[in-house]
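Design job #97: recover the sequence.
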């Protein structure tokens, strides 16, 4: 079983997500524009706290690890997003989200690269992500993390592998 550990990149700290992050993350993730491609609606503090409690409890499948981090931009001293990895079967499925005020600054790409590098250090050979076919920014993040698009789709999203 793999557990999330702190990861440091040039500008970012990926910090294992805790229930106590819910209040700040409700603000970071509160823009409805973030949900255009991922679906759903922004969650309030109580909803996020409940979700983080579930995530902290871990996967019900002992062969699967849920690794979740908040992304802290050191220069600004604030949380700006999340990265996640669902680990099992010798590989990981990853995802990322950065709040709209911090988009367009390469933060998601840097966080995803840091995450993928950490997963490789853990001995995981296969990393995948699923990206909406119309989400060019997320496709650029996947490419920056060393992933490449495939012809496979899942729930309408393109499977990227690296």
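Job complete. Output follows.
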């Amino acid at each position: 079983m793999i557990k999330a550990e702190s990861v440091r990149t040039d500008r970012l700290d990926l910090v294992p997500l805790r229930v106590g992050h819910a209040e700040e993350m409700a603000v970071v993730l509160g823009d409805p524009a973030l949900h255009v491609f991922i679906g759903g609606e922004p969650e309030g503090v109580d909803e996020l706290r409940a979700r983080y409690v579930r995530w902290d409890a871990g996967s019900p499948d002992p062969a699967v690890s849920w690794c979740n981090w908040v992304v802290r931009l050191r220069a600004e001293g604030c949380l700006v997003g999340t990265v996640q990895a669902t680990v099992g079967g010798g590989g990981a499925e990853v995802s990322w989200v950065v709040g709209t005020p911090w988009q367009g600054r390469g933060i998601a790409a840097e966080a995803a690269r840091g995450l993928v590098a950490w997963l490789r250090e853990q001995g995981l050979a296969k990393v995948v992500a699923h990206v909406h076919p119309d989400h060019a920014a997320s496709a650029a993040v996947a490419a920056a993390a060393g992933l490449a698009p495939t012809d496979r789709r899942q729930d309408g999203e393109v499977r990227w592998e690296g």
